[in-house]
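Batch manifest, entry 17 of 40.
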Amino acid sequence: MNSVNQSCRNSEDLRTYQHHVYAVVYSVILAPGLLGNVLALWVFRVYVRETKKAVVFMMNLAVADLLQVLSLPLRIYYYLNNTWPFGHPLCMICFYLKYVNMYASIFFLVCVSVRRCELIMRPLRYNSSKRKGDMLICASGWMLVCLACLPFPLLRNPKSEQNNGEHVCFSELPMRNISTPGAWALLIIAELVGFIIPLILVLACSCLTAGSLRDPTAGAIHDRGEKRRAFRMVLSCAVVFLLCFAPYHITMPLDFLVKANAVSSCSLRDLILRCHPVTLCLASLNCSLDPLMYYFTTDEFWRRLSKPEIPESMTFSRRLSCITGGERAEDE
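Output type: structure tokens
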């Protein structure tokens, strides 16, 4: 602890506040996030081969959200009990997966927005080979996100993981020493690649899809109902993006500077450290909001949940078996 931290005496009160915020919010989003994303995967599994409306990307988005939800019970335990008894490796895995799942959600929200916009503007260019390309994009996205998120755990110092005899975890692990130019380079790359570029793409898709509604000659789809559904989906992606991820990426560089002891004002440090947990909880809230987005913006969800349907392939096989069964009965 350096002189900056020693001069700010309210660290224990701040830690209690942060733990209460995390424990309450994570407990609230655990059940709806779990049920919503399991339901989403069940619905998308039926329609993944029957529709081209970015279902592959939405399935991967649901997987990313579900993985984040499954890590919440350990986080809730830690924030309620103020200690981590599960060992340092599991702490690092949960800490790492938090950012992997968050940036994977950002990546797939962008993919959903781009695909739905493309299907409205140029629907005839989508074919079965492009569906295989979507799977390749998903695999590449997971690899890119996993590699890009490695600095988050690597910048933490595992040698100092106790606070008054209690084992600490997650963001309370101390930072490694890093040069100021290196810190700024990481911050700029994270903000640019992880937030600013995706935000521009999502907003651009929203504008293009809204423009297709105003111009009846734009694109090759003339069904305004289909265009409205696409616009609701893209607009929902933009709303989730702005609500969940924009506040976090505003406070993230400030929190990083505080953790690196580059902020000397105690009042400013306290304000940043009290705002950052709220924005991090908002970033976690997307795993509960995404299933609502699926339900209110995709007709597949409405059809599947309002009247459980038998997939067309199963219907055809049943009809074929009835026909062949009838023929056998006549032969006998």
